[in-house]
Amino acid sequence: MTPGSFLEAGHGAALHNGPSGMGCQMFRLDYDASENLLTLHVKGFWTPEMVPELSAALSQQARALKDAGRAFDVMVESLEFPVQSNEVADLMTGIMTAGFAFTTGRAAVVVGSQLNKLQAERTLVHPRLRVFRAIDPAKAWLATPAAQA
Known about the structure:
globular; 6 strands
């Protein structure tokens, strides 16, 4: 899907599989124009070699939204994303840091365990980011005007 068709449709999904032979979807990007929300779904245990594909796909979608003049929010649904190696966690932090350059919106990260929450809160530090254990509170926070959040 090209960035133009992604935006013209008002929503979209980009599916990405893991390394050859893994046979499972490791991440997916969805954009909901009505909520102005880019959602990243991640799952599985990652190696450092897997992260650049995510970085490239996310940068492409974020750049297309920024170029369209949208200050979008981001939600990361990582309920099936176990605690990662320090190297992978650091690479994911780099993606998050770079991603905030594309939007003035906020980011909510939804994790599947308290241990994941601790890792995310340790590595993903930004004033426009919060970590949650459930999707509904994350969506509620994103829906609240930033001045009130």
